Amino acid sequence: MTSETKSFWNEKMTHLFYLYDADRDGSITPLDFEILADKLSALVGQDDIKRREDYASARKTLCQAIMRADANKDGKITLDEWLDFHANLANELRKPDTNPEVLEQLSERINTTFNMIDLNHDGYIAKDEWLKTCQFFGVDEKTAEKSFEQISDGDRLEEDKAKSLFLEYIKSDDPNHVSNCCLCFL
Ligand SMILES: [Ca+2]
Ligand SMILES: [Ca+2]
Hints:
Keywords: Calcium, Lipoprotein, Metal-binding, Myristate, Repeat. This protein is mostly helical. It is 65% helix and 3% strand. It has a single domain, classed as EF-hand (Recoverin, domain 1, Orthogonal Bundle), CATH 1.10.238. The chain contains 8 helices and 2 strands, in the order αααααβααβα. The chain has a two-stranded antiparallel ribbon. Helix 3 (49-67) runs antiparallel to helix 5 (100-117). The longest helix has 19 residues, at 49-67. It is globular and about 45 Å long. It binds calcium ion (CA) (2 copies). One calcium ion binds at residues 70, 72, 74, 76-78, 81.
C-alpha cells in the first residue's frame, strides 16, 4: 500500500465509523445499533410485524459481528479499534489463503447488510431500495443514482454482485474502485 492509498482507505473506513456512530458520542456501542435500527425500520414500514422482527434479529446479528472490533472488550469501539480491526480484516482478505473463519464471519455480516437493504426480500436490490438506503445514510440523490448505474444490471443489483462489492469495499484501497460507491452499507 502506498501512503496515498492507505490514507484513502483510512478515510473510507473512518467515514463508515461515523455512519455507525448514530448518537455521535465518538464510539460505536450497541446503543448505536438500536438507534439505527429504529430509523431503518421506519423505512421498511412499521405495520408489518414479521419485517419488524426480521429487523430486530438482523440488528442483533450485525451488532454482534461489528462488536468484534471492540478489542479491549469495554463495550465500545473507538475509532482506533475500528481502523485496526478493518486493517487486519483487509489484510486477511488480500491473502490467497484467507482464514475461512474470518471469511465466514464477514459473510454473515454482508448477508445481514444485504437483507437489510433488500427491503422487500426478493433477492436483489432495486433502484428505489438503493436510493432509499443512500438517502438514509445521507448520500445525495445524484451520487446515489450514478452509483446505482455503475453497479447495477439495468434496474437491479443482483445478490452475488452486491455481496462481492461489499467485500471489495473493505479490501480495496484503490480510490477509483467501483465498490467505493457502496460507501455506507457495511
Ligand atoms: Ca456512539
Ligand atoms: Ca473498546
